[in-house]
Amino acid sequence: MNHQHQDERTRIRQAIDRLLAGQATVSNGSLTVVALAAESGVHRMALHKRHVDLKNEFYERIRKETQQVPETEERLRATVAKLRTTITNQRAEIEELRHLVTSLTLASAVLTQAHDASAEPVLAPDNVIPLRPLTS
Known about the structure:
Elements: H1 3-21, H2 33-40, H3 44-49, H4 52-66, H5 71-118
Helix pairs in contact: 1-2, 1-4
């Protein structure tokens, strides 16, 4: 590791300690990667790309030391819950629509059959040869 990389890691670890102690100096003090990046003076993408282990360590320490779930995880859990509800509702709606299609198909078949039975047979023009004999 080069000196700059090591310096970033040191600043990130110090920022983690300050945030967990509630002594933020630069950021708003929230327990997020954005606040960690601001507090450490390291670009947020550097945390996501070069220092993933420190980012994961930060979240793990949040769970252990503060006995709370990180804000991003809470948002994801809420989104997953909403999506599960949406999926359940859509499955029920699809099932209802399938029953409706079946009912309408049966009704259409009954009406078509009733119409065909009451109609007079249509005679074919002279130049058409029927594939089945006409019923009279």
